[in-house]
Amino acid sequence: MSEHHHAPSGITRWIFTTNHKDIGTLYLWFSFIMFFIGGAFAMVIRAELFQPGLQIVNPDLFNQMTTLHGLIMVFGAVMPAFVGLANWMVPMMIGAPDMALPRMNNWSFWILPFAFSLLIYSAIASIFGFGGSAPNFGWTFYAPLSTAYGPASTDFFIFSVHMMGISSIMGAINVIVTIFNLRAPGMTLMKMPLFVWTWLITAFLLIAVMPVLAGVVTMMLTDRHFGTSFFSAAGGGDPVLFQHVFWFFGHPEVYIMILPSFGVISAIIPAFSRKPLFGYSSMVYATASIALLSFVVWAHHMFTTGLPLAGSLFFMYMTMLISVPTGVKVFNWVATMWKGALSFEVPMLFAIAFVVLFTIGGLSGLMLAITPADYQYHDTYFVVAHFHYVLVTGAIFGIIAGVYYWLPKWTGHMYNETLAKAHFWISTISVNVLFFPMHFVGLAGMPRRIPDYALQFADFNKIISLGGFVFGLSQLILLVVVIKCIKGGEKAADKPWDGAEGLEWTVPSPAPYHTFSTPPVVK
Amino acid sequence: MPQANQHSNSPTRESKKLLIILVLVTAAMFGFAFALVPLYDVLCNLTGLNGKPANEASTTLATAETADQSRTVTVQFLANTSAGMPWEFKPMLSSVKVTPGESRTVEFYVKNRSDHTIIGQAIPSVSPGLAATHLKKIECFCFNQQQLEAGSDAKMPLVFYVDPELPKNINTLTLSYTLYNVTETAELTPASASNQGS
Q1: What is the ipTM of this complex?
Q2: From residue A139, how far is each of A162, A219, A465, B193 by CA, in Å?
Q3: Which DSSP symbol is given to A393?
């Protein structure tokens, strides 16, 4: 094999790189930046809601903040973070030298900064007053709010979604081709680490539903400018059609945002329990079942649109059915820990917090699945509490756990244990102060996406906002930990966790620029 | 097992093949998003849900034998114009009481308040949605596009009956029309000019 030009230095290294580790790093930093931007918008929301009345922002800007917070966190923070983890870890876990389509890999990353520049530009233009309103219709961009009544910047939003969709689809195609074609000899499908499995299934979900998202924003675009009436009742269309098409994308999307975290947790819990994962094959089948069921539950977001009884019942039962494979996973994780030689390093702490807190989010989801009960919960803070438990303490805690787990492999140094523990405890306590009381105000009837509220919600909202500020600021500790770990620290062993399993721990720390140029043999 | 030791930027033949398949799947799913539009309409027409009544004449006529004299149903009429439609549009009667099976004629008034000829299309919607299929239209201005010269007005007829199969618990139906300015698209298709109404 010819000697490669080794990592060129400077900015061109990052622009032209086709190396999976470089691209993984780019994705992870990009999502980290987006996490702070989306977080800053959330801080504006919580500052406004600190007390009743309108104090800081006007209602239109408040709506822009809720919209952009959701869009940036979903498409800018969580999804690119998973693609970053996949880029770094999937080739190393299956003994491949790189991703199968390295040039496309470069392209799929470099579309993202352009996509988000468009979106964030409209926010900057709105905040500093040199442009009209940024998108202000909620991250779900229901028609006709986003068609007949959308601000001019909606077109920026539409093209931004097109670009991030193209990026995600290319990333997903790359993962599938890599996993199917570049596994090391002996690495059969049922020997793959669960992170690889969950990402393979996620990639298929992405390919199935991101084009539907692209389709729905294209319909919006033609409704807005080219005289079609997909969502306009006056022209023979139907606004409820928007919700059906959107949630056909939207529900698989929420599993796209959780399945890779399941994979991360399934790597970490066995490592720190010093036992193999309990029920490996049932985990694989549970993941696949969740993915398949995700296509037949979308209308549970739409119970209050006037579904027929048979439709409501179908979607209610299908939604409840999802708790079976999810329960299989949770019990498998607990069974893995059972009688294990547990130790509580920071990745394990985040993983345990994930299992407990994600289960709370799953249970409130089960409550929301009950159609008659949903009439009470719909569009209240109860829903906000539910999806933040599954997305923040689920998806994001999974990502953070993965970052701590693999940081020694990426940087060659151990992270600062004291700071990392502080990050864990402050985050875990504040995130519950932030989201748990939302259940109460939601059940009491506080609507979501409203900048002002009735006086009886004032005390809980003050507590929620305080939790929010602490949680937001505590993420700066993670930034400090990561930067310190890159700059130096205790030298990491090739396998810093004694219970860890997998090919990624057989290469040196930090992982060299090229790994597995000669494929390893898996017994 | 596929060869994995050749670290190169050129994907292998198998990778390219799989790439092409996955790109085709992506394209197919993009098409599927658009296929959901007619599928949704088919489902709405089959079930009569969501207040989307069929916009065509009923094939069955009301007869005296099928009429249900035991009850009356109130049918309310609403008329709206969409943005960019400078017509006045209102029902001559805001509601009528009918016996199921009895056919009735009502009229809607339109006036073109603009200074140019406009072609309009009315789109019906029935509430409650589950009753949508039970409101049968024998003749309706909404079956055709309507053309009005600048400043002129017209009375547009609607002949309908309420299906005796209407569930007993429903005693009020609301028929709402939204009038839409289709001048631009109508001019593009000259064929539609021949079947314009009054």
Answers
A1: 0.88
A2: 15, 17, 21, 42
A3: I
Classify residue A216 as exposed, middle or buried by CB count within 10 Å of its CB (0-12, 13-18, 19+): buried
Region label for B197, one of left (φ > 0), alpha (ψ between -120 and 50) or beta (otherwise): beta
Best mutation target, B3, B12, B15, to test chain A (most A CBs within 10 A): B15
Indicate whether this model's pTM tops 0.95: no
CA nearest B142 in A: which residue?
Answer: A236
**Could you say which of B26, B50, B83 has the minimum Cβ distance to residue A169?**
B26
CB contact under 8 A, B11 and A97: no
Q: CA nearest A21: which of A107, A84, A104, A94?
A: A84
User: Which of the residues of A are catalytic?
Assistant: 69, 98, 139, 167-168, 251, 253, 255, 266, 300-301, 326, 329, 448
| B5 contacts A1? CB cut-off 8 A | yes
Alpha carbon A443 to its chain centroid, in Å, reads: 26
B14 touches A at CB < 8 Å: yes
Test the A interface: residue of B37, B47, B78 with most A CBs within 10 Å:
B37
Token pair, residue A16, equals 């032209």
User: Per residue of chain A (523 residues), what is the pLDDT tens digit?
Assistant: 344 555 567 888 899 999 999 999 999 999 999 999 999 999 999 999 999 999 999 999 999 999 999 999 999 999 999 999 999 999 999 999 999 999 999 999 999 999 999 999 999 999 998 888 999 999 999 988 999 889 999 999 999 999 999 999 999 999 999 999 999 999 999 999 999 999 999 999 999 999 999 999 999 999 999 988 899 876 778 888 999 999 999 999 999 999 999 999 999 999 999 999 999 999 999 999 999 999 999 999 999 987 878 888 999 999 999 999 999 999 999 999 999 999 999 999 999 999 999 999 999 999 999 999 999 999 999 999 999 999 999 999 999 999 999 999 999 999 999 999 999 999 999 999 999 999 999 999 999 999 999 999 999 999 999 999 999 999 999 999 999 999 999 999 999 999 999 999 999 999 999 999 999 988 7
B86 touches A at CB < 8 Å: no
